[in-house]
């Protein structure tokens, strides 16, 4: 096990008897791959809001972008707590991951340029962004970039054996 990897806790109440914790390397592999993520935020009236997006895992932080006037950006202005999920579409194989944390807006332009390069490297030239005024800039206008340093991460290994692993990072 990597000395820098967080400690995994297998929840035996929701795991097969022969299950082992999912490795942190597997979680990072899933978070790094080009895939759809789902973000959950909280509306001003307390109702949940869930929407798909793409994200980039870099330096132990999960990053996503949204327009300043989009519902998720408006929600984050009032409550920055989020849940991001991703995984495999099959119900009986693969692994799903849940990341809980606080979304923090990133405005440092050097960091944004590095993230713009990561977006394009991960998702292709369709997702090419310039950086201007502390945000991504593209054909769709400005996009604010947020980073979520995970507080808690869950992995749900599906199939046989199945297992639920949790990491507390902060």
UniProtKB/TrEMBL annotation:
One of its GO terms (molecular function) is oxidoreductase activity, acting on the CH-CH group of donors. Keywords: Oxidoreductase. The lineage of its organism: Bacteria, Bacillati, Actinomycetota, Actinomycetes, Kitasatosporales. It comes from Streptomyces uncialis. This is Pyridoxamine 5'-phosphate oxidase. InterPro entries: F420H2_bilvrd_red/Heme_oxyg, Pyridox_Oxase_N, Split_barrel_FMN-bd. One of its GO terms (cellular component) is cytosol. Residues 1-21 are annotated as: Disordered. Residues 26-124 form the Pyridoxamine 5'-phosphate oxidase N-terminal domain. It holds the Pfam family PNPOx_N.
